[in-house]
Amino acid sequence: GIGPAAHSFNGQSRQWNVANNIKYTHALRNDALPFEIEQLTSQQRYNEHVMTGLRTLRGIEKEAIQALGEDYVQNLVTSISPLVNNGKVFINQFGNYALKPEFYFFADGIASDLFMETESST
């Protein structure tokens, strides 16, 4: 992310810039990047893929979930099936689960319903 308090997720870690405008610009003037980084567990990566995927047209990328292991695939399929059945989520042109536009406003709440709550054994 670019700018104060911007967040990024690269599939493995979460990174965020310092939120203070003055500290941010001062660091840049001194050729420093003012950020913190956090390495994520498999469960956290799954939850990030779900949350960020529902916020994009690309959707929740099935390949990213498959790379985490079968437990994560099963959790996603089980938890998202009711949303597919009630028309809130569909399989898009990329073959991923995507939120229908009329439900974008509810993306964060829907994502939290799909989160894996306990660490997987994989």
Write a structural description.
The structure is a single chain. With 122 residues, the protein is an alpha+beta fold. 43% of the residues lie in helices and 16% in strands. The chain has five helices and five strands; from the N terminus they run E-E-H-E-H-H-H-E-E-H. The chain has a three-stranded antiparallel sheet, with no helix packed on it. A two-stranded antiparallel sheet has the order 4-5. It is elongated and about 55 Å long.
Short account of what is shown:
By secondary structure, this protein is an alpha+beta fold.
Strand composition percent: 15-25%
Shape: elongated
**What percent of residues adopt helix (DSSP H or I)?**
40-55%
Low-confidence stretches: none
Order of helices and strands: EEHEHHHEEH
- Structural Rg: 17 Å
Terminal CA distance: 30 Å
Number of strands: 5
- Number of helix segments? 5
Major β-sheet, in short?
3 strands, antiparallel
> How are the strands ordered across the major sheet?
1-2-3
Helix/strand structural class = alpha+beta
Mean pLDDT: 93
